[in-house]
Amino acid sequence: MLAVGCGMLGQLLAADSGYRGPRVPCGQGHEAVFTAYRDKAIDTVLGPVTLNRAWYHCAECGHGVAPRDAELGVAGASMSPGLAAMNDLAAAAGPFAGAARLLEELAGVRLDARRVGRAAEASGAAVAAAGRERAALIASRKVVPLPPSPLPDKLYAVVDGTGVPMTARETAGREGKGEDGRARTREVKLGVFFTQDKLDKDGYPVRDKATTSIIATFEPAAAFGSLVRAEGIRRGADHVRQLTVLGDGAAWIWGIATDKFPEATQIVDLFHAREHLHSLTRSLEFMLLDRRDEWLAARLEDLDYGYIDGIEAAVRQYPLEGVKKDEVERELGYFLNNAPRMRYHWFRQCGLFVGSGVVEASCKTVVAQRLKQAGMHWTVAGADAIIALRCKEASSQWEAICDHRHNQTPAA
Ligand SMILES: [Zn+2]
Predict the structure, then answer these.
(1) I need a surface site. Which of 1, 74, 312, 390 has the fewest CB within 10 A?
(2) Are 364 and 259 within one domain?
(3) What's the gap in Å between 273 CA and the centre of ligand 1?
(4) pTM for the whole thing?
(5) What is the total count of domains within the chain?
(6) Where is the domain boundary, 76, 106, 130?
(7) Are residues 266 and 387 in the same domain?
(8) Same domain, 161 and 251
(9) C-alpha distances in Å from residue 62, one per residue of 24, 49, 70, 75
(10) Distance 29 CA to ligand 1 centre (A)
(11) Full residue range of the structural domain in which residue 31 is found
(12) What burial class does residue 351 get, using C-beta atoms within 10 Å of its C-beta: 0-12 exposed, 13-18 middle, 19+ buried?
């Protein structure tokens, strides 16, 4: 079937020679002159086909150009757009060798694993560049996204970071947590956006289906902040009634939240706060002894209510000295610094999410599942490209619902 289809596709393509007159624009402001008909081999979903098309040459830039390539979406590429999309999907899902096998088993297309990787990384880099370009256009108000319709009640931005294992060259000279003090990973920062309108019958918030969009970058917090701001605007941050930023308590997250979305409610992820409470309890274990479990249970109750003063008072009952005092103060500091972001009882009354199972899941699915497999070492460029493909895929449901052309209006 594929062979028959491939033969038909070859003939269909041959019906147009790509001749567009004796001269065509070269793309750099000059005219290119028709030179000859030349072959170009492309791999398609149906198999390899050879395209014979008119070839023009620009004397001024010294470059050749085939208008037909651009029309077919294969300029500078050796895969058809259809095959490239399949390749992106497979390479975003798993290691390149496995992706090549998948393409052969499921689609009958035989590609070298290295070529799968190169093509996917090129696509991913283009996706990431398009995302940055869109963010810059939104930031400069050259593109003004219209409010989403219907307007959601609550928009959430969940911000997190996670390490990606890197090649030695990418981490050279960077300090890390390893025993030798060398970094093994580079942090990718993620912003996950979704909306929520409803509560379930028990009064818990329910995430609106297919509203998730994700952005990610290895760039420093400042650059990430601009991307988050632009995505927030695109998602209607300026129009929704309730905007919320959820994070694990890291200072850079609140720096971005305060700077980019000063109107947003800031909430420390309850699950992270609970983990910190467990480690605070461990630090006090030697004083608590067999009252440990009881003490922890009571503090967890304090936390669920957002009663940070109660946690502080319970800790201060134990006079500590020296190293132990520093350790406990540090653990307690996490709660004191974030107390306004831990008013969980109040947040729940407002019908807000207080735990970001969402971002944990997103970090895992977008980054860990694909990029943190045993033995993997990435370059920043390679990891950035594959993460971009995975973010695009994770965001695609929302994109599909929200048609760009109808949802954006150029300001000029
Ligand atoms: Zn030219």
Answers:
(1) 1
(2) yes
(3) 60
(4) 0.87
(5) 4
(6) 76
(7) yes
(8) yes
(9) 14, 28, 18, 17
(10) 6
(11) 2-76
(12) middle
Question: How many angstroms is it from 71 CA to the middle of ligand 1?
Answer: 19
Averages of pLDDT over each 10 residues, the chain, 412 residues = 94 95 93 96 95 96 94 92 94 95 94 95 94 93 87 93 90 76 87 91 86 92 95 94 92 95 96 94 92 96 96 93 92 96 95 76 80 91 94 81 49 42
Residues 188 and 265 in one domain: yes
User: In a 3-state reduction of DSSP, which class is residue 39?
Assistant: strand
- Protein residues within 5 Å, CB atom, of ion ligand 1: 26, 28, 30, 58, 60-61
Q: Is the same domain home to 194 and 266?
A: yes
CA of 127 to the centre of ligand 1 (A): 27
**What is the predicted pLDDT for the residue at 411?**
44
Report the separation in Å between the CA atom of 65 and the middle of ligand 1, taken as the mean of its atom positions.
9
Query: Could you count the other beta carbons within 10 Å of the beta carbon of residue 370?
Result: 20
How crowded is the C-beta side of 36, counted as CA atoms within 13 Å? 3
Q: How far is the CA of 55 from the centre of ligand 1 (A)?
A: 14
Q: According to the model, what pLDDT value does residue 333 have?
A: 96
Expressed in angstroms and rounded, the spacing between residue 121 Cα and the centre of ligand 1 is 28
Of the candidates 52, 129, 121, which has an alpha carbon nearest to the alpha carbon of residue 91? 121
**181 shares its domain with 193:** yes
**Cα 198 from Cα 19, distance rounded (Å):** 58
CA of 63 to the centre of ligand 1 (A): 7
Q: Find the 412 Cα to ligand 1 centroid distance in Å.
A: 29
Say yes or no: 234 and 351 in one domain: yes
Distance 268 CA to ligand 1 centre (A): 56
Q: Which of 342, 360, 386 is the last residue of a domain?
A: 342
Residue 310's identity, in one-letter code, is G
